[in-house]
Amino acid sequence: MKLRRVKAIAVKESLQIVRDPRSLMIALLIPLMQMFMLGYGINLDIKHIPLCTYDREMSQQSLGLLKRFEASRYFTLRKTAQDYAELTRDIDDSSCTIAIVIPAGFSQGLNDAGTGTVQALIDGTDSNTANIAANYARAVISGFSGDLQLQAIQRRGGTVQTLTPVDVQARVWFNENLESRNYIIPGIVALVMAIVGAQLTSLTIAREWERGTMELLVSTPVKPLELMLGKLLPYFAIGMLDAAICLALAVFWFDVPFRGTLATLLFTTSLFLIVVLCIGYYVSVSIRSQVGASQVALLLTMLPTILLSGFAFPIDQMPVFVQGITYLVSGRYYVTILKSVFLKGAGAVELAVPILCLALYAVALVVLAARSFRKTLD
Amino acid sequence: MNGSAGAAVEVDGLTKRFGTITAVDDLSFSVQPGEIFGLVGPDGAGKTTAMRMFASVMRPDAGSIVIDGIDVLAHPEKTKRHVSYMPQRFGLYEDLTVEENIRFYADLFEVPRKLWEARAQSMLVASDMTQFRQRLAGQLSGGMKQKLGLTCSLVHTPRVLLLDEPTTGVDPLSRREFWQILYSLRAEGVAMLISTAYLDEAERCDRLALLNRGTMMYCDTPAGLKSRMPGAMLEVASPEPRKVREVALALEGVQGVLLVGSGVHVNVDDGGRRSPQLAQALAGAGVQATHIEEVAPTIEDLFVALLEQNSEA
Q1: In whole angstroms, what is the distance from residue B237 CA to residue B260 CA?
Q2: A127 and A226 inside one domain
Q3: Which of A7, A218, A226 to mutate to probe the B interface, most B CBs <10 Å?
Q4: Does A23 touch chain B (CB under 8 A)?
Q5: How far apart are CA B13 and CA A70, in angstroms?
Q6: Final residue of a domain: which of A130, A162, A194?
Q7: Which among A35, A136, A319, B15 is placed 20 to 30 Å from B226, CA to CA?
Q8: Which of residues 175-234 of A touch B (CB under 8 A)?
Q9: Of A360, A361, A337, which Cα lies nearest the Cα of A349?
């Protein structure tokens, strides 16, 4: 391998990048856009569930219960219905997810028999949200009934002794407020890097074929490895710049706590970047058309990283077979690393396994990409 | 380099198929150092495919190519150092300047800086392009692009130069400069293989191979090929060339008629006998003809005649 040829290719490629400001802008703006779109768009916390109430009693107690729903940050009161038909309509047109109906005789039952019944109607289309809404509603109601019991006892002049035989003292580590954003954003950084990295290189060989410059290039003594290194170097620089933009946004804009070291972050990011750049390069070599290569590169990086990297969907909840497949997705390792570096402050020692896997992945892809290029037209 | 040192290029039984089509069929010839060897033939004759195989950017299905004593098929990379290939389609980077392109190829061939700078300078002077050094290649005219292509392919002083239709779309002046460069290379002992669709250019080659549908029909010097021309060539000057052709074709002893810039070329079996007959026939049909004379055949005449002869056989 001759350094002079690697340099010649890298210089040539850089000149071409710089002389095409449109593509350079895209390379730097797209990650910015994607970070904002995905960072704000993906939120797994369920708050402010739209609520509709129908109070058939209008007693002090029924109003008291509904006030509690209104006060809860999990629910937002959208409407106070006057009859069942109105309620049904609201659930049908999705203007509310849950409806609470308080029947006539609610407070009488409470006072006489010590038990009252409340009806909750829940839109089960999105089963996850429905489940959460039902649980939140149960929590609000059990709080209400606890207070009622307390009042009843106090009224009788009794002393209050709440008895909880076993108490769980739960403390959440790493993501203390259980904000989904804190673990989603590092995943999004990985996703954006995967997409942009492969896009950057997916055009580089295909462009030479399309513009007719490849025929001359393959007639020179340049070696496939020299060509690959020369082509990847400038894109590696751009990719690292993109990574810096994404990571800075994560920390300074989205306020994701960063507890690890910059060295671990940069090292692992370089490894992942090498992987995705090589994916793009390999596709570019194989497809020979810019549009086609760009599409395939997008498909190869975006889908697995979204679905199988564990960035939003927990891997341990997947069927065993699918879990096996996730080991083939490079994003899986980088997402694991990023989440740990960001939230746990993990270093290279704790992350030895995923880092090693990512490094192996990078080596394998460098070899694959280097071997894929044949200096022939047929 | 002297001529007795052996052939610069030796091609033997070269064959390339694309599916059921045989693009190049059993091609064999050799080119000496300091020789300009032309590949001539209509579109689809297999010229470009052959060139690509010589440049070892395409692998043949059968046959062998030896360049400078090195087997190209066994060591494709080894020969690339001494060979320069200029593809038919402009292969340089349009978004790089003239100088950047030259430098890029000099780097790929590892030419020492002093050497390529001097060489590029003299080439740019010879092709009258020094003032365009900083211009983007994409903004050059067709002729200048080709001259830049030639400059780039010569920075590493190749021993064999492969030019695939280098002057297509090039203005006559640039073409002349182009050929002057080729002649000076010939004097340096560079072996050149040039494919062309321009038959006046074919005439400038030392030897010619006539290709048709992948097969080499003839291979000789231009003069040698002309001597194979059957019969004689009569040139008819007339304002109505199409009518002349009509009349001539109906005549006995006429083997072919070709419209050329200066009139009509009629290929006849015997010039002395057919010339008055043709004049008579033209007069009889009322077609104006200012004069009829026997001329030496051009490569174009020859080419058409040989192709026709071949398709009849």
Answers
A1: 10
A2: no
A3: A218
A4: no
A5: 90
A6: A162
A7: B15
A8: 211-223
A9: A337
Shared domain for A262 and A143, answered yes or no, is no
CATH of the domain at A56: 3.40.1710.10
> Residues A115, A62: one domain?
yes
Structural domain includes residue A171: no
Place of tokens 């074709």: B249
Could you tell me which chain B residue has the CA closest to the CA of A13?
Answer: B96
Q: Give yes or no: residues A274 and A301 share one domain.
A: yes
Q: Structural domain tally of chain A?
A: 2
The highest-level CATH class for domain B232-296 is: alpha beta
One domain for residues A112 and A232:
no
What is the spatial distance between Cα A224 and Cα A374, in angstroms, rounded to a whole number?
7
Task: State whether A207 and A341 are in the same domain.
Answer: yes
Total residues found in chain B within this entry: 313
Task: Report the candidate in A163, A174, A196, A212 with the shortest Cα–Cα distance to residue A331.
Answer: A196
By CB neighbour count within 10 A (0-12 exposed, 13-18 middle, 19+ buried), where does A327 fall? exposed
Residues of A in contact with B80 (CB under 8 A): 219-221
Report pLDDT digits (tens) over B247-298: 888 888 888 888 887 788 888 888 888 888 888 888 888 888 888 888 888 8
User: Which of B21, B77, B80, B107 should we substitute to test contact with A (largest number of A Cβ atoms within 10 Å)?
Assistant: B107
ipTM score here? 0.84
Q: The whole model's pTM is what?
A: 0.82
In a domain, A315, yes or no: yes
Question: Between the CA atoms of A239, A242, A244 and A247, what dihedral angle is there, to the nearest 10 degrees?
Answer: -120
Q: Of A115, A134, A162, which one is at a domain's C-terminal end? A: A162
Question: How would residue A348 be classed by pLDDT, with cut points 50, 70 and 90?
Answer: confident
Q: What CATH number labels B9-226? A: 3.40.50.300
Compare all CA atoms of chain B with the CA of A7 and give the residue at the minimum distance: B107
Q: How far apart are CA A365 and CA A268, in angstroms?
A: 16
Residue A185's domain comprises: 3-43+179-372
Specify the 3-state DSSP secondary structure of B262: coil
Residues A71 and A197 grouped into a single domain:
no
d(CA B236, CA B245): 10
CB distance from B82 to chain A under 8 Å?
no
The domain locations on chain B are 9-226, 232-296
Is the Cβ–Cβ distance between B95 and A16 less than 8 Å? yes
The answer to whether residue B115 neighbours chain A at the CB level (below 8 Å) is: no
Half-sphere exposure of A351 (CA within 13 A, CB side): 26
